[in-house]
Amino acid sequence: MFWPSRSKIILAMFVVFVTNLFPSESSAQSKVEKLLNQLDKNYYYPQNKGLKRISLRLEWHQENAQSEKIFTIKKPDFLFIGELHNGVFVKKIKIFDNSENLTNKENFEDISFLNNYLDAFIPKTLREKFLSFKGTIGSKKRKEIVVILKNKETKDNFSEYKLFVDTEKMRISKIIFRQSREPKKVEGKFFYTQKDGKWVVTETVSIFKINDQEYIEKTKYKYKSLESFWLVYNIDQTVMKGESKVLTYNFTLKDYKLYSK
Known about the structure:
Blueprint: H1 5-21, H2 25-42, E1 51-66, E2 69-74, E3 78-85, E4 88-95, H3 104-114, H4 118-121, H5 126-129, E5 134-140, E6 144-150, E7 159-166, E8 171-179, E9 185-195, E10 198-210, E11 213-226, E12 229-241, E13 244-260
Antiparallel strand pairs: 1-2, 1-3, 1-13, 3-4, 5-6, 6-7, 7-8, 8-9, 9-10, 10-11, 11-12, 12-13
């Protein structure tokens, strides 16, 4: 189509104005990916230090608080296995050979529960965790950037992360997670130490509501050095409802078998 010269200039100016006013989705996504990559460089990941494969025995204790009494349950041992494939650490839980005999239903329920902790034993990189998410920069301050990451914007299966990034220490200080099912909102804070000059999480504190009841979940991580890798060996998690303890999980990781390049 033929456009007069003046019309072409006006159209070009309009396109530039709109482009600057509304940055392209790919440009916004690129900025978020760059920021996540920067953060990943500041976090400690055993796989980035050369760990290729790992297997270990997982001991699991659970305490339930009912009617002011605490019931301690010693769960059977399980195996945690992980292996690096194309830059992604594939992890799974298996039944330990010497574990107590359980029904298939009990095995399935326990393994399904432990699958929620796979990334606590060997953490995913941020790039890996948010690979399928669309990201935008929500706001910028002198010492903080807020990143919004959305998975699926459908009412029946919606999830969104809001990351609060400390730009001085280049780490995530706080997170707000939203989803379509309960708990619909979780607010979490992170506390850190350093291993080999990189950040590792030592404690998380999360607040959420279920059926209008507020819960506080505290999780503590302990690390030890094995064959030049810093690895989690103990996780202690407590869930409180008000001033009352609801339950406690304790995971002890032992009998490590490590394979590196």
